[in-house]
Amino acid sequence: MIARYLPILDWGRRYDRATFGADLLAAVIVTIMLIPQSLAYAMLAGLPPEAGIYASIVPILLYAVFGTSRSLAVGPVAVVSLLTASAVGDVAAQGTAGYAVAALTLAALSGGFLVLLGLLRLGFIANFLSHPVIAGFITASGILIAASQLRHILGIEAGGHTLIEIVGSLLANLGRIDPVTLVIGALATAFLFWARRGLKPALLRAGLAPLPADILTKAGPVAAVILTTLAVWLLGLDARGVAIVGAVPQGLPPLTLPSFAPDLVTQLALPAMLISIIGFIESISVAQTLAAKKRQRIDPDQELIGLGAANLGAAFTGGYPVTGGFARSVVNYDAGAATPAAGAFTAIGLAIAALALTPLIYYLPTATLAATIIVAVLGLVDLAILRRTWTYSRADFAAVAVTILLTLGLGVEVGVASGVLLSILLHLWKTSRPHVAEVGRVPGSEHFRNIDRHAVETAPHLVTLRVDESLYFANARFLEDLVQSRVTEGCGITDVVLMMSAVNEIDFSALESLEAIDARLRDMGVRLHFSEVKGPVMDRLEGTHLLDHLRGRVFLSQHDAWAALAPRHAT
Amino acid sequence: MIARYLPILDWGRRYDRATFGADLLAAVIVTIMLIPQSLAYAMLAGLPPEAGIYASIVPILLYAVFGTSRSLAVGPVAVVSLLTASAVGDVAAQGTAGYAVAALTLAALSGGFLVLLGLLRLGFIANFLSHPVIAGFITASGILIAASQLRHILGIEAGGHTLIEIVGSLLANLGRIDPVTLVIGALATAFLFWARRGLKPALLRAGLAPLPADILTKAGPVAAVILTTLAVWLLGLDARGVAIVGAVPQGLPPLTLPSFAPDLVTQLALPAMLISIIGFIESISVAQTLAAKKRQRIDPDQELIGLGAANLGAAFTGGYPVTGGFARSVVNYDAGAATPAAGAFTAIGLAIAALALTPLIYYLPTATLAATIIVAVLGLVDLAILRRTWTYSRADFAAVAVTILLTLGLGVEVGVASGVLLSILLHLWKTSRPHVAEVGRVPGSEHFRNIDRHAVETAPHLVTLRVDESLYFANARFLEDLVQSRVTEGCGITDVVLMMSAVNEIDFSALESLEAIDARLRDMGVRLHFSEVKGPVMDRLEGTHLLDHLRGRVFLSQHDAWAALAPRHAT
After folding, report:
1. CB proximity under 8 Å: B 374-393 to A
2. Given a cut of 60, is residue B270 above it in pLDDT?
3. Which residue of A271, A446, B31, B340 sits 20 to 30 Å from the alpha carbon of B430, by its own alpha carbon?
4. What average pLDDT does this structure show over A410-422?
5. Is B292 on the interface with A (CB under 8 A)?
6. What digits encode the pLDDT tens for the residues B177-232?
7. Helices (H) and strands (E) in chain A, counts
8. Predicted complex: ipTM over 0.90
9. Stretch A367-374: mean pLDDT
10. In this complex, is the C-beta atom of B534 within 8 Å of any C-beta atom belonging to chain A?
11. Is residue A312's pLDDT more than 80?
């Protein structure tokens, strides 16, 4: 029982030296990759750079205790950082103490919400974000993030939460571009783009073995950080207008307390839920993909608890909302991480960085961090999803397009909320017309098929309708209309059979609709019958008004119904 | 084409003397019934009594032109009157000119919305009010209405929109009860209750023929009106504190203009939609029930246009929102109405009443009208629905209970909105777990059945899962989890078959889930196959990444899949 909520008890017992070696190597690689990324995402969230490092230490440790994935790496990620900036920016001004406290509160609320969902086993609610909505949202977020970081590359002040605002603000300030910053930013961006694609082949061609080549490639952002920091320091560029990170406190993550002032909680509750769900979806997708490669299982409800614990940890140690990141988890997996201990070692590496390395990044230009972000998030932008959904289904295309347009045009929160709403409405609209086929007998057999598609036998006085979906409030009335129009349009119909082989459930509304159908058919002198009602459905129907008053019969099989009813007037 | 939007062209062409006689008799009976009812419902809506008469004249005529039901009687009804009072009460004080104008605007918005829904053929959105929500809402509304009318019976001032407010307000004013009003109100209520049940048998026992006995029973409320009016007039009770209707303008419905001030429209838009949908549902249920008795067809989309036209008519002739009423339509049907012309004759009857009879109701006590309302709405209260849904399904019970409690506790609008939301959430929750059964072969046959229920053959390396529902975003991830856990828990599994015989649709999210399942199974060295994919689904899947990259095969039948895969390791 305890082991269910503490997966560490399972893998911890079997930990050995070989696993330790694999985990340690993975941790070194991930740590190198995470240092610049953590600084950059903190900047994206509007927080001081150390918040990114802090958000990667205790959360990783807590996830290692409570999470079920062997490879997931938890910490700040781009989309959640953007959502944090948007939510916290609504309640406090960037750079104030209130801003940092609000970020802690957001992490605490998000953590509490995730743990609650996990304990109540409500992970399924994440399913209501359809893939097109998620894809549209991630793509639009990537564009928004990249656009918002351009100001650091250009060395100007600019702001805004929507694409129009951001672009407008950039254009208005174009005259104040700082040329030195632009050179640094442009070079860093170009180098990072090249490093993603070209560095590893170049290193391999230069005769390096694959493993070191791989590590060096992952260290590309670190190289950009070191080179641009050196350039600023040696050339004194900070005095010439290049924005730098500046003094970052040296030390382990501090103990911090989120505020639970009612006003703040009220304002942040909805964004916290949104961040939780979006983060959970990103995290669980990565975790399941990586787990499948080793035939491991992910327990979604326990994952909620693991992520919740990580966020609570972030809230009390100077961080901000975190989740399982795609890029870092893949790197962790590829580097050979065998257990969550790899995460713990990464946390130790980052703690060392927080203790020892922060003075070294004093001269780090923010343009370099912006370049790191831009290169990372442009990998999220997938406009091809528009074409793919268009060919497959117009409804799904609409969901993608609306989500992208509204996220870009009205901001992340409105965008994703509208996407969810649209998905649900389109689904309800589709299911409000249950698939119903009129069937007849395949001659000489016991099979019954759609009369529109097959040459089948029918009887003029007998209508058999095969209901292909469960009946519930949104589609039951459609069946009422369908039966009534079929019988009033036909001539001499005396018997209607509803073939229920595909009906798994009949809710109370549908039960009343069936009663209404029976009553109306009786008024028309027509008998209603059922065939092939599934066991559990039949159990439910026993003792209801419907069966007690039904004029027709319930046949075990459609063949029985045919045998009993078809010849009635044929003689 | 024109005939589609003007059903009158169909029945009007075949109108003859016999139909005329039937319609005229029905009209006389309905007119007698409608006079006190119209006055009473106008009072319930917070409007002057003549508004109720006006709302029954032009709307009936317009419905006769545009509606498809032969028996539906359109006009003010209890629930819509309550909703009107609630919506208009939020924007203007009762008794002011603004109040009457807001009621007109509400009718105009509701009419416009209904016509729009009809033209766009969007009648299906009414289906999202499940039966339990409607039943709970109607029951709670009946209780609220009865409670709100008690003040007229007691002769005190009181108000409130929720049951607690109303009861509290009544209790606070109990000291001011007017004894004479109470005597009139109590006698009228008792008489009307008795008239509903006991009058007709008494008249029959007295030797009256059934038809006159029936007409006299329907005239019960008229008798109460006449007797109490005479009592007040002859005894001068109005001078002793009995509230009376007073002066009612004499004349045909006036031409009125609703206001379309942006503020007012914004405030009334949502209530107007709610009223439209609730009214449409009440109306269409009655219309379909009555139509079935004569094998007639109701076109739901055309009904929207008919009701919309009626409401637009009400907006421009001093009325307020109307719909097809249950009681009056049944009376109309029972009295033999054969075509919508019966409605037109009723309108003429009411026009005569508005022209000639209004001076006669000067001394009519409002307590009598309140008694009419109370007796009518208590027939709507159906608390047995709680027991019926409880035995049938807990989810439906929850929907009823929440709707009743919230409608009573927080008012009609919050109540019905919460009920709708709850219905949709419960439905989504249920559908987020698609029914999936693991199947095996019935020995010696080509049939495949659930392994938990039947003695069937299976092969240890082969897992066959029958998917019993269409796959879409909310349930696709559940399938991912299910397949992954089944394969990781099993031993030596090499092939998974998804039997798709019941899948009518696969949306883009589900397509991506199937791709993820395939990719993860491939990582585990397992092949994914499909069997019995329906034609339209297969057409969609052609050319997708899923089929292009599938390692396994698509089998026409599950039997083919079994024949190809089961013996693989058995040899």
Report:
1. 388-389, 391-393
2. yes
3. A271
4. 80
5. yes
6. 999 999 999 999 999 989 888 888 888 898 888 878 877 887 788 888 899 999 99
7. 26, 8
8. no
9. 89
10. no
11. yes
Q: What is the rounded distance in angstroms from the CA atom of residue A76 to the CA atom of residue A520?
A: 61
Q: How far apart are CA A453 and CA B106, in angstroms?
A: 49
Q: Do A473 and B423 touch (CB under 8 A)?
A: yes
User: Which of residues 201 through 260 in chain A touch B, CB cutoff 8 A?
Assistant: none
Q: What is the DSSP letter of A48?
A: -
d(Cα B280, Cα A257) in Å, to the nearest integer? Answer: 54
Angle at CA of residue B328, ends B324 and B329, nearest 5°: 60
Q: Does B569 have pLDDT greater than 60? A: no
Cβ contacts of A524 on chain B, cutoff 8 Å: 292-293, 295
Whether B476 contacts chain A with CB within 8 A:
yes
Question: Is residue A289 within 8 Å of residue A55, measured between CB atoms?
Answer: no
What's the token pair of residue B521?
């199974």
Minimum-distance CB partner of A472 among B298, B427, B472: B427
Is A474 at the interface with chain B, CB within 8 A? yes
Chain A positions in Cβ-Cβ contact with residue B392 (cut-off 8 Å): 508, 511, 540, 544
Q: Distance (Å) from the C-alpha of residue A366 to the closest C-alpha of chain B?
A: 38
Q: Which residues contact B94 (CB under 8 A, 6 or more apart)?
A: B46
pLDDT band at A294 (very low <50, low <70, confident <90, very high): confident
Do B4 and B302 form a contact (C-beta atoms < 8 A)? yes
Q: Which is nearest to B487 in space by CA: B436, B530, B525?
A: B525
Mutation choice for B interface testing from A473, A485, A512 by most B CBs within 10 A: A473
Output phi, psi for A437, to 5 deg.
-125, 140
Give the residue with greater pLDDT, B446 vs A186. A186
A490 inside 8 A of chain B by CB: no
Q: Burial of B88 by CB count in 10 Å (0-12 exposed, 13-18 middle, 19+ buried)?
A: buried
Which positions ≥6 away from B463 have C-beta within 8 Å?
B438, B486, B487, B490, B493, B495, B496, B497
> What are the pLDDT digits (tens) for B111-169?
999 999 999 887 777 777 788 888 888 899 889 989 988 999 998 888 888 899 999 99
Q: And the tokens for B227? A: 């007797």
Question: What is the DSSP secondary-structure string of A514-567?
Answer: HHHHHHHHHHTT-EEEEES--HHHHHHHTTSHHHHH-SS-EESSHHHHHHHHGG
Q: Which residues of chain A lie closer than 8 angstroms to B520, CB-CB?
A: 288-289, 292-293
> Residue A213 contacts by C-beta under 8 Å, 6 or more apart in sequence?
A200, A203, A204
Query: In degrees rounded to 5, what are phi and psi of residue B459?
Result: -120, 140
B477 contacts chain A (CB < 8 A): yes
User: Where does the pLDDT of residue A327 fall: very low under 50, low under 70, confident under 90, or very high at 90 and above?
Assistant: confident
Paired with A528 in beta bridges are A496
Per-residue model confidence as pLDDT tens digits over A55-98:
999 999 999 889 888 888 899 998 899 999 989 988 888 888 88
Give percent above pLDDT 70 in chain A: 99
CA A456 from centre of chain: 47
Interface test with B, best of A121, A127, A453, A517 (most B CBs within 10 A): A127
Question: Which positions in chain A touch B544 (Cβ < 8 Å)?
Answer: 392
Pick A379 or A190 by higher pLDDT: A190
Across the range A407-427, mean pLDDT stands at 81
Above 90 in pLDDT, residue B294?
no
B166: distance to nearest CA of chain A, Å? 31
Whether the CB-CB separation of A463 and A497 falls below 8 Å is answered with: yes
Q: Across the interface, do A127 and B475 touch by the CB < 8 Å criterion?
A: yes
CA distances from A108 to A59, A64, A111, A309, A412 (A): 12, 19, 5, 9, 21
